[in-house]
Amino acid sequence: MMKTPVAGRFLTIYSVIVTIALAMSLMAFRNLHESFEEISVKRINIVDDAGRSRLVISNQEKMPPPVIGGKTYKRAVAPAGLVFYDEQGNECGGIALSANEKLGMRALAFDYSNADAIGLFSREDKDGSNYEAALVINDRGPLDKIGNNQNRIILHTANGKAGLTFNGPDGRARLRIGVDSTGNPVFETLDAKGVVTKRFATAKK
């Protein structure tokens, strides 16, 4: 079939446009691998080859809701920070930086598949009246239940007091070892109802 002059010009223009578009695309892909000294963004999503999130860095406004067992839940507090995801796209830990008009809180957490596992946090009232820092270790609950975990160990300092608490499978304190704000050591055992059954304390010399 013979090409008309109009058709020939159209193909020529089309070829030029496609060539320019391909060249621009190649330049764009090349630029993706370039280095930057500084970049300002509200959120960065790191995904795997299947498009599933593996790491999200976000401000508080863009922080994604938690995903556990493939289901999305409402986040109690929307902090700025990082969120880690497992191979199925479920949240499995993160770093949170949050604050309100009364206090500020910083936390690092790693999770079981269905609940919080271990956390490291600091909390401080903005008026300076109270402060606390702690390492929290939890048991995992049944896999078919979300968030049904129990706290077992707390190592913390709060307002000048330092302590280590061991909890039973029900999450109730059974043994407490600490040093009060004046430097006096304290040792306590508790029953299942939380009543102190034995207490040993020595005054600082």
TrEMBL record:
<protein>
    <submittedName>
        <fullName>Uncharacterized protein</fullName>
    </submittedName>
</protein>
